[in-house]
Amino acid sequence: MPELAELKLTADYINQRAENRVFHTIKKNPAHKGQEIALPFTAFKISAENQGKELLLTLREVDTNQEAKLRMTMGMSGHFKWINNGVLSKHSHLCFESDSGSLDFVDVRRFGKWKLAETWSENRGPDPISSFQNFIRNIKTNIDKKDFDKPIHEVLMNQKYFNGIGNYLRAEILYRTDCNPFISAREALQSHPEIYQLCKLLPLQAYKLGGGQLKDWENPFGTKVDVTSWDEFMICYGNPKMSKITDRNGRTFWFNPIWQKANI
To answer: What count of other Cβ atoms lies within 10 Å of the Cβ of residue 103?
Structure first.
């Protein structure tokens, strides 16, 4: 967490809060190891977009339209929050200040990262929502590689191919396919091509529901998710009736109990 749906909501929030505002300073909390951000201009506007689990901020100088781009990942709990003047925010680690307040990157666990960059990371695949055909093409082009010898439940977490898919989404995707999560990713994708569609449809559904209210992440708009609707969406992940294991990356993977013997 946060995953594709939550990053898309984060970009929406930044664009709403930054609209018609001019920022003049970027301050970094000394407690965070992230780099200081020095811009060649002092009056700028902010816009945001996401691709999978990455966020790209465009900082555009007001008078000349000169640009700088800031690439960010949210870690386990990172999110943005508008902070009014005079209000202290203990866990704000990167603050974009304006005369009326600041747009802060808030990260309790400090796993979020940022750097000045021209574009997206090269080691992340296309976004399953905004670039669905490229997402499919990237996987099919590489499906003969050794990466796809691994179990599908592991490969779904590989951001080179499944950018934006994380722990709760992989559980929900595989549960809905009736796919043995322990077979190779190559076999799973060939025998259950609906996995491709679910990589778009389920993040989009989670986005429309307001994102996953899981652990330290909260909807930046302060919107309360309809618990009934979210519980209806979250069929597998965290369900005590499901089976679970700790995968090779130390993450808890929830799956249909009918596949328990397949893991032995």
So the answer is: 23
